[in-house]
Amino acid sequence: MWRPGFEPKATAGTLREPKPMASTAAVAQAPSARTTRERLVATWRRGEEALSPRVLRKTLADLQSIVDTRVSEVEGGRRAKAFAKWYATASADERRDAWSLMSEQFGPDPKKIASAREHYEASHGTPEEGAAEIRLRKAMVSPRTRLMQRFAAFPEGMRFLVDLRAEILPHLKGDKRLIPLDAELETLFSTWFDVAFLELRRLSWDSPASLIEKLIKYEAVHDIRSWADLKNRLDSDRRCYGFFHPKLDGDPLIFVEVALTDAISDSITPLLDETAAAADLTKATTAIFYSISNCQTGLRGVSFGDSLIKRVVETLKEEFPKLKTFATLSPIPGFRSWLVKNAPADKLAAWEKPLELAARAPERQELLAFAARYLGKEMQEGKPVDPVARFHLGNGARVERLNWAGDPSAKGVKQSFGLMVNYLYDPKRIDKHRTLLSQGEIPISGAIEDLYR
Fold first, then answer.
1. Annotated catalytic residue within 103, 265, 293, 330
2. Average of per-residue pLDDT across 162-187
């Protein structure tokens, strides 16, 4: 696992880099003016179109053969695998043509939907209503669903689809024609990656080297600086758990790093101190979730965090019955950008060196007040504006405490002036907190409320 001179560097995105991904320029490039429908009946290729009309028709035929109802699931999977093999060597623009075909040419039949809807509306309140509803549901299922299912049938198919969506995501804003394909994949992934099919595994220093290296590369919150840093995070007073899916060949979907302590942590520095002695587990009363990393970009929008935290809490309580408190030590990634828009310019200048502010400095108290307001009041479309707050509060936590100089690193100062926050998970109040949030009220502690009064 260790190689001389190698120092691991964490990345905030996915580990896997699909071959010939589109360049930044390609992402920004406007899509072709012609739809695939227009190109399929054309004679000549035009402008920046990657595949000629003849090759585009051949590619469509290959995709249609995959969903051919006359062939078995096994044969359909074999054809899907052959297409995936072509895709692996295709250029970025050729891949984009393939996405367009999948998105535009495999939608549901609008005539069947209209007929089924008319029949359903006419049968409302009659004994035929149930059968009419089933007919309408079937009419709305697109051939694209069957296409994706057959890609998932061969052994590497699920990885192919997850990576495919990861490639598509940066293009959605500039090419709305790809939205149906993205929506189809997200819907299917929500079923295929349901927590009932996921396995919770503990990652330790004794785990296979290949898995340890994935932990290094997927870490998205606090970069793993060295093997010593990694070993510290997997020490006896730590736990690391991840969700795995049998179709992704040992690749984690999400993982959480936990420190076992005797109190709620107020700084990330001692937790990442490679020279610190391991804590006495006989005195541990608190589990601190200090890093949660989503590993698969292609699974964006599919939620695992809620179930992961619940499962980890249950697992920890079984191993350590004395644990009573479950909390996070979390970054506040959106705070600075929000503050720039909402605080006076002279105040911003006074906060540029927050670690130098005295404990009773008014500027320090004002910054804490703004942070409390940001976390405890600010919402957009019914959800907290901060992405980490949105995650934890949506899972039933409450905003518990702000920590001055919680993350004094350059990254911490840049994104939140060094502030960190504890979110508290109280198993007895998770449902209550969720209800409050659904009613437009962010669950907060009295300490947070006092800061912005």
1. 330
2. 96
What are the φ/ψ torsions at residue 294 (nearest 5 degrees)?
A: -80, 135
Find the mean pLDDT for residues 153-157. 94
- Check whether 411 has a pLDDT greater than 80: yes
Task: Note the pLDDT of residue 14.
Answer: 30
In this structure, what token pair is assigned to residue 86? 């072509």
DSSP alpha helices (H): ranges in 343-443?
345-350, 362-376, 387-394, 410-416, 430-438
How far apart CA 284 and CA 321 sit, in angstroms, is 10
Q: Please give the structure tokens belonging to residue 1.
A: 């696992």
Mean pLDDT of 197-212: 93
**Torsion on CA atoms 436, 439, 441, 442, rounded to nearest 10:** 60
Please say if 123 is a catalytic residue: no
Q: Tell me which of 222, 245, 392, 433 is the catalytic residue.
A: 392
Which of 8, 4, 5, 420 is CA-nearest to residue 231?
8
Q: Angle 83-86-89 (CA atoms, 0-180°, nearest 5)? A: 150
Domains of the chain with CATH codes: 24-107+142-192 (1.20.140.90), 196-451 (3.40.630.150)
Pairing state between β 325-328 and 286-294: parallel
- What's the CA gap between 429 and 423, in Å, rounded? 13
Name which of 235, 374, 394 is nearest 304 in CA terms: 394
Tokens representing residue 303 in the block: 């939620």
Name the pTM for this structure: 0.84
- Length of the chain counted residue by residue: 453
Beta strand extents in 199-284 (DSSP E only): 199-202, 238-244, 252-261
Does the annotation mark 392 as catalytic?
A: yes
22 pLDDT more than 60: no
Q: CA 162, CA 300: separation in Å to the nearest integer? A: 10
What is the three-class DSSP state of 401? strand
